[in-house]
Amino acid sequence: MLARTTSLAVAALVALVAVPAEAGIRQARVVSANPVDNTPHVLDGIVNAFALVGNTVIVGGRFGAVKEARGNEEIPRANIFAFNLSTGRVLRDFAPDLSGGAVNALAAGPDGTVFAGGSFVASERGLVRLRVTDGSPVASFSAPVYGGDVYSLVRQGGKLYVGGDFYRIGRTLRTALARVDVETGETDPAFTVTPEGGPSSAVKVYAMAATRDRLVVDGSFGTLDGLRRPQLGVIDLTTGQVADWHTDAYATACKPDFPSYVRGVDVSPDGRYFVVVTTGGPFPGTTKLCDSAARFETYARGDQIRPTWVNLTGGDSLYSVAITGSAVYVGGHQRWLDNPMGADTRGPGAVSRPGIGAIDPVTGKAQSWNPTRERGIGVKAFMTVKKGLLVGSDTTSLGREYHARVGMFPAT
Questions:
Q1: Could you say which residues form the signal peptide (predicted)?
Q2: Which residues constitute the domain of residue 39?
Q3: Is 156 helix (H, G, I), strand (E, B) or coil?
Q4: CA distances (Å), 229 to each of 122, 186, 247, 275, 304, in order?
Q5: Does 44 lie in the same domain as 20?
Q6: Which of 330, 359, 388 is a domain's end point?
Q7: Which of 316, 335, 359 lies at the terminal end of a domain, its last residue?
Q8: 36 with 141, same domain?
């Protein structure tokens, strides 16, 4: 099994690198295990993504109706809706029609807008910028995608990074990854990093996360700009080039029906490390990172970088991860964490964490937080906010209460 790096070794490693601006929301403590009572309910389908614009939460996925926590009215919504974070009230004027496919990704835009990406057919196929006040598209932004869909969005200032399995965005050929202007949607000619190859037929960027000067990408690819980067790579945003950061941790295949198995990724609030979660199947007693969460140091350099720690579920998929500094939250349809010897069974040392759990960022071991959730397909969306942790999934039980597909654990 992989040896766990000690706390002192982790501290020594991160002390060698410059610390970028904060990449996300830092929370001093693990959130409460008791969800708030006022989040709205999504009545069908699945929630895939969140974004926060001011005090408004935008929710994307594949669904047709929502309902407020303190009401009985079914409110039609075509794969996207918005609600007030403080009150839980659904915004009635925000009702864009993003039918024809799912919303897979969201990112807050400038001037009270939000970017939505997915497989939908709207005024712009697969990628659109919407006003939060009334849901209308911003006509000046045009970046339709062709040949595939959008799976991930990351905005940094005036630039929007777009990941998916497309071959063209707007008028420009781009394979699975592009950078566009947030105002116009024009593709940036200075950013041409190209994913290629990989374990499956379709090249795809599943997930992305960024610091001030690094972009972490994972997905179904073998190289970035011809450099070996099996399923995971880091891009230096100061140069627009692939960083001197390489790992073969995900080069080994899992089960044949999971040729590509990386899924969610998030960067710590200080940017020093990131965590990748995967699907893939149980392989007890091996170094394969199937069905796992693994921490990597963002500013490590060189070849054959190894994870700082790995936490294995023992055979259940993880799809989403969120890092707050005090915890690494992971979600999927897992039954256990700390289960390196399990094979669809509870192995020695395993702890029960149905559908959601929290991992210590330094030790890589499960924390005591265990609210539970109905497992279903799994958690497909996390978003940390100052008030807590938003959770999006396909099921209706969270923290042993009814919270249909959307819920929030409050900060403590």
A1: 1-23
A2: 31-192+371-412
A3: strand
A4: 34, 27, 7, 16, 10
A5: no
A6: 359
A7: 359
A8: yes
* One domain, residues 391 and 352: no
Q: Are residues 302 and 345 in the same domain?
A: yes
Look at the chain and report how many structural domains it folds into.
2
Does 400 share its domain with 304?
no
Residue with tokens 């998916």: 164
The residue to which tokens 């921490």 are assigned? 295
Contact (CB, 8 A) for 231 and 259:
no
Per-residue pLDDT of the chain (412 residues; tens, 9 = 90+): 333 333 333 333 333 333 333 357 999 999 999 999 999 999 999 999 999 999 999 999 999 999 999 989 999 999 999 999 999 999 999 999 999 999 999 999 999 999 999 999 877 899 999 999 999 999 999 999 999 999 999 999 999 999 999 999 999 999 999 999 999 999 999 999 999 997 777 899 999 999 999 999 999 999 999 999 999 999 999 999 999 999 999 999 998 888 899 999 999 999 999 999 999 999 998 889 999 999 999 999 999 999 999 999 999 999 999 999 999 999 999 999 999 999 999 999 999 999 999 999 999 999 999 999 999 999 999 999 999 999 999 999 999 999 999 999 999 9
Q: What is the pTM of this model?
A: 0.93
